[in-house]
Amino acid sequence: MIAQPDAASAVHEKWRPSLGLVVLAMLLTVALLPVFGLSFVRLYENQLVRQAEGELIGQAAVLAAVVGREIAVDPARDALLGPAVTAADPAAIEPTLDLTVDPILGRRPDATDAPASPPVAAALAARLAPLLPQIRAITLAGFRIVDRDGVVLAGGDEVGRSLAGVEEVAAALRGQFRAVMRVRISKHPPPPLYALSRGTGVRVFVALPVLVEGRVAGAVYASRTPDNIVRLLYGERNKAGLAGLIVLTMTLAIAFVFTRTIGRPIDTLMARAAAIGRGAPVPADPGARFGTREIAALARSLDAMALRQRERSDYVATFASHVSHELKTPLTAIQGAAELLRDEECEALGDHGDDPGATMSAAERRRFLDNIVADTVRLGVLLRRLRALARAEGVASEGSTSLRAITADLQARFIDLDIQAGGALDHPLPLSPEDAGIVFGHLADNAARHGAATLRLDAALVREGLRVRVADDGPGIPDRDRARVFEPFFTTRRESGGTGMGLSIVRALLSGCGGSIVLAAAERGVTFEVGLPPVGRREAAAALRDDGRIKLNAITGGA
Fold first, then answer.
1. Under CATH, what is the fold of the domain 38-235?
2. What is the C-alpha to C-alpha distance for residues 526 and 340, in angstroms, rounded to an integer?
3. Residue 56: what pLDDT?
4. Of the listed ranges 268-272, 475-479, 490-494, the one predicted with least confidence
5. CA-CA distance, 270 to 267, in Å (whole number)?
6. Where in the chain are all domains bearing CATH 3.30.565.10?
7. pLDDT tens digits for 338-364?
């Protein structure tokens, strides 16, 4: 008996997601991939920040060289130069800002009031002022040129005011390069999409000292806003929306395809399997839609399993009917003979004991006893045949043999039968020596018992494996009986002890290894064709009969 799961085990059954849930999760993951891609925006923005820093360094270095040149040729340059410092080579300065690590400072402090510039500084500012608007128009960056005290000489509307209080400018006046990120102040409110980005509110500032003969003559203070990917996306928002709509449409289309090809077919298979489990008749439906090739193959396998189950159930029912019929006849004979003997014994001991007519003769008594013994022997033979059939329906024994070895064994067992063999005698058979001896031994025994003098075995290799023709020269089988030779308990030798189980056992053994046996047409005698698969296919065939073996062993008591 198969144990049924109780309520407790059903409650604590491990949770497993449904196929629809798994498919939905996969589709949502695919749909959200563009959103996850925004996590890489900062990495890209960081590169944009460093790009802006590198461009400002190059532009500030060129402008610092121009300013230094102007100061170097000025006769009053000593009034413009500060103290000597040790500064790094501008060519060795590399972008170092990191949007994810470096702090973003507050807005730049406002310029403060400063004393009036000396005439020499005013003259320098007048020469530099025309350059900056042209540079700004090309580079889109803001530039301030400050003197050694931090007073703006040119650039913007802060000329004449001091930026010495700005930390990066103060560092440049000490001969150090400094780059920082500050909060960007825009005249216009940012679009809502800019909230996804950190770099949209950032402006890069660099301060590079102007050196003349190793002395600080001032600084170039430059700034600009780096390019931003979110701004680019916002500018293409209509196209981005169309792309999102396409992604959503494709996701829904994929969901529809998954449902049609996987979800619904599996639900159908589950319903069919549940109906088969309840024993309800489930006819095969070749026109049913099962989506994919794999699910269609699973559906065909399920239909084949249901068909085998019905055939096995019908076979077991028919087999049980035959067994009850075959056992009923000898049991009835034994019962009748035993009752007659009992009645005769009772009469012999009763009032009519002296009446010679009331006593059973010795011949009659012996005849009834012989009948009891014969029927008992027949029951024993039937039970042995049933056990043999149960064994044949069970797990196939391991090993293989050849037709040459089987022929030698048959020649030793049936000395009155001329056994001949030809063809592929050394080709391996997917049968153990014991099972092969039973199969071909039954065929040889049938030939001998029906008066055959010669038995011929011819083996030939075919595409499916090996085909063996077993032919004898006996009287043959009447046409009316040819369709019933493999039927259990059918025999024409019942009076001489035949049980009609031999060919059933042969067919069961061959079916167990994936083989077959058929009664072929013959002009003389009886010819059987035995089909055997290659040795490697026996394991696959064994799985096809496990359910039938369990039911048959339950009837016969096992092997």
1. Beta-Lactamase (3.30.450)
2. 44
3. 92
4. 490-494
5. 5
6. 349-556
7. 776 666 666 665 544 444 455 667 777
